[in-house]
User: Fold XPP2 aminopeptidase from Urocolius indicus.
Amino acid sequence: PLSPHSPANGSSRQLSEDEMYLFDTGGQYLDGTTDITRTVHWGVPTPLQKEAYTRVLMGNIDLARLVFPPNTAGRTVESFARRALWDVGLNYGHGTGHGIGNFLSVHEWPVGFQSNNVPLASGMFTSIEPGYYRDGEFGIRIEDIALVVEAQTESGDEPFLTFEVVSLVPYDRNLIDLSLLSAEQIQYLNNYYETIRARVGPELQRQQLQEEHRWLQRCTEP
Assistant:
């Protein structure tokens, strides 16, 4: 874990199916650092929770699939992660992402989307993590790690850039309102789920984790 957390008698309480949970997870390994946040609801989310989650996901997808010129500063494209929230008067009060160190710092300078970060370049790793929070009610964040890569564009004199999401964890289907998503966003999700199945599925089977493999197949259906 990124930091030690343990329940205390004064602050611990029982989990229930009637609320949202935000899991900010990660670990440091010899071949890299992970920092992945997922938000889940095991019961029946409210219409606001479902819409807010879906719009956070839309922002995550819109930034992840963006194609942009080389030497673009992160702050120039940051608002793509917020636009779906802005459309309905919602926002979040933290940064949209930070660099990730390779077995170094979880928040690794100088990559990111703030005004004092360096321009994005191929080979950089950054998080993409829009969110939405209601004090005392619920919090949503969807965080993936993405690699800056060259984009396959049909024309142009110099290679443009885009992101390749390397965090392979499904999103919570229970919280997605498909009617809000565009055809391109749905196609992106389906491609992402195909990648998760192809890369994570065989490893779960190799380790004979059948229950986990069934869960993965269920969560990555088109």
Notes: Residues 18 and 43 are 5 Å apart (CA to CA). The mean pLDDT is 94. Strands lie at 20-29, 32-41, 125-128, 131-134, 138-141, 144-150, 161-165. Residues 183-206 form the longest helix (24 residues).
